[in-house]
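Consider this pair:
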Amino acid sequence: MTVFRKGHVRVESYLRQSVLNDVVELEKRVWNREGYREVNAPMLYFELAYLTNGLILTAFDEGLFPPEEKEKMAREDPWYAGDHPVGFAALFADFDERGSFWYGARMGVDRLYRDKNIGEAILDALYRSARERGITRVRWTYDPLQSRNGYIYIHKMGAQVHEIGFNYYSAVFTNDEFNRNISTDRFIVEWFINTDRVRDRMEKGVLPVHDPSGIHPGNTLNEIVIDEEGLERGGEKLVFDAEETPLFLEIPYNQDRILKADRKKAQDLRNQCRALFMHYLAAGYAIREFVVKKEPSGRIRPYYRLDMDPRYRDLTRLTL
């Protein structure tokens, strides 16, 4: 069993039998799903990932909370009394025309442990595991409107995006409080482990420095405004005929707040952003950078930077 440590987090890369049931219970807790164990047979799911040359990572608390606070948590919920996992990731071995890769199918962190760097510890262990086992490419999906994930995956880890899937997951897999009754559009992310772009970030902690002043009306594709209820929503600006590079596409800073307040507004904003993503990714642009702009008012505005992929730069675009 390989054990990785980062701060007060222990990450194991071996699926112990005693942990298997705990991982299943943890996923149910993460997504707040009722009947999940019976519907989706997740125990077999995790076993298959582990037994078919994939990877299961489980994270454990080694002192993230003071003892008195941990005791209080255990009194309120016996789950926290033992050494149960507080985060996990499940990856399957897969291949395509470019060779083999790991596909990240599941990842989650216990609700009480969010903002405790559990995800960062898991992703660090994933990078080190891939290096150890000679995996050069990892793929996964995520909601492109989750600004925190965009910051972590694109900016901090050096992943990149060339594809987006419209309504990627069926209702069977999205009957949870985050995805219920909302389209599950997802970026298909690729993480090239052996590139300088990734190694500099993961091993040296060197992150690119972006000047937000380079974002201006002439190179932005949309605008997100604040409505009368204080919620972010899509403005009138939608540009589908830009050809320069780079371009910037704005997303909401706090999508979860919109989802909780008004699902229709959340879906309307999703429709706008999806249309732009699909158009420009299909036209040969790629997403390799994530830029955050802070206005004098204190408002935080996140943007994806779209650069024309060099492989498509000299191709004549087709007009359908």
Summary: The two ends are 54 Å apart (CA to CA). The longest helix spans residues 263-282.
